[in-house]
């Protein structure tokens, strides 16, 4: 992933600590898209103006969570959207770190596996990529955050700023994948 420092700071304002010298680094991967690759139509918004996708959450896998991880959070953010101020497409939190990932299409709404927060439109659902037609491809940073907060600690209905505020001092590490999409 080749992010500019200012872009990464905009994506994740909480401090992520590196893994210790004897442990492997936290990693996140997806069978739905590769880091730096094109996001599949299955994840894209359903509106024909977006490409008429299926609006399915991407599959995610993670490993090497930092010691002390009690819950996970996910943020999918498009820094190119919203005329430069960014767009939140997906917030998910209170995710059990004992699971090793999320199946494709299984994280779009609150369930036993996770709680979904508010996207930029204010709805508590996954919102697939949908940049304006003719724009250069947008970048969608999907960041997994390991926290020391016990499962169920974070309340329902959080938006990105509320989530980041509550994660201050509780983030143990983070890793991102960046997918691109344009039409």
Largest sheet: 5 strands, antiparallel
**Architecture per CATH nomenclature, i.e. the level-2 architecture:** Alpha-Beta Complex
Strand content: 25-35%
As for the number of domains, it is 1
Derived structural class: mainly beta
Q: Poorly predicted ranges (pLDDT <50, ≥5 residues)? A: 1-22
Globally, the shape reads globular
List keywords for this structure.
183 residues; mainly beta; single chain; Phosphatidylethanolamine-binding Protein; 5-stranded antiparallel beta sheet
Helices and strands in order:
Layout: H1 5-11, E1 27-29, E2 60-63, E3 71-78, E4 87-95, E5 101-102, E6 115-116, E7 138-147, H2 160-167, E8 171-181
Antiparallel strand pairs: 1-2, 2-5, 3-4, 3-7, 4-6, 7-8
Describe this structure in words.
This protein has 183 residues and is mainly beta. It has one domain (36-181): PEBP-like (Phosphatidylethanolamine-binding Protein, Alpha-Beta Complex). The protein is 8% helix and 27% strand. The protein has two helices and eight strands. It has helices at 5-11, 160-167; strands at 27-29, 60-63, 71-78, 87-95, 101-102, 115-116, 138-147, 171-181. The chain has a five-stranded antiparallel sheet, with no helix packed on it. A three-stranded antiparallel sheet has the order 1-2-5, with no helix packed on it. It is globular, with a radius of gyration of 15 Å.
